[in-house]
Design goal:
Blueprint: H1 2-40, H2 44-55, H3 62-74, H4 82-90, H5 93-96, H6 99-104, E1 106-121, E2 126-139, E3 145-159, E4 162-167
Antiparallel strand pairs: 1-2, 2-3, 3-4
Length: about 170
């Protein structure tokens, strides 16, 4: 009887461990997908933000300039670890990601995302993913669409109970 109870408990433990690992992997993959979609989508709102950033601020507008930057950059915070967000913020990636689209007059959106887990480090609570994305660039004058492919790796870490992008951010 004790053997049966032990086997049942062991089986339940293994199933719950597998489910927990799978859940973390699913959450990590969703974080990567949502981050990439936000990073590589450029709209009219982004153009307006970019224009404000490249013009700069007059001395009496610095507070407004900073608030606009804070607001536009904050949408990435939920996807990034504290360390990654700090670098993202300091490097001004929230508006540099718009530069090419603005200068060449096109909007972008993600057409497809393929994400594959390449490494998991249970000790450091990280999962590394390789991704391939297709980005649609829509010319604002001709409405022609061009598909651009990008690929890279991102590492996701568990931070404060949430899955966050740790590194690998490329514009």
């Amino acid at each position: 009887m004790n053997k049966i109870i032990s086997i049942i408990l062991l089986s339940l433990f293994m199933v719950s461990s597998f489910a927990s690992c799978n859940k973390n992997s699913d959450e990590s993959q969703k974080t990567v997908e949502n981050f990439l979609t936000t990073l590589y989508t450029v709209t009219q709102d982004d153009f307006e933000y970019y224009q404000k950033m490249i013009i700069g601020a007059k001395p009496d507008e610095v507070k407004i300039y900073d608030e606009v930057y804070e607001t536009a950059t904050a949408k990435f915070k939920k996807f990034l670890s504290d360390k990654s967000y700090e670098k993202f913020y300091v490097d001004r990636l929230s508006y540099l990601r718009i530069k090419s689209a603005f200068e060449n007059n096109y909007y972008t959106e993600i057409k497809s995302i393929k994400i594959e887990k390449t490494k998991e480090d249970k000790q450091n609570k990280t999962i590394t993913y390789h991704y391939e994305i297709e980005i649609s660039q829509i010319d604002l004058e001709t409405s022609k669409e061009e598909i651009v492919k990008k690929s890279n790796t991102l590492t996701v870490i568990e931070e404060n109970g949430l899955r966050k992008v740790l590194d690998g951010i490329k514009i």
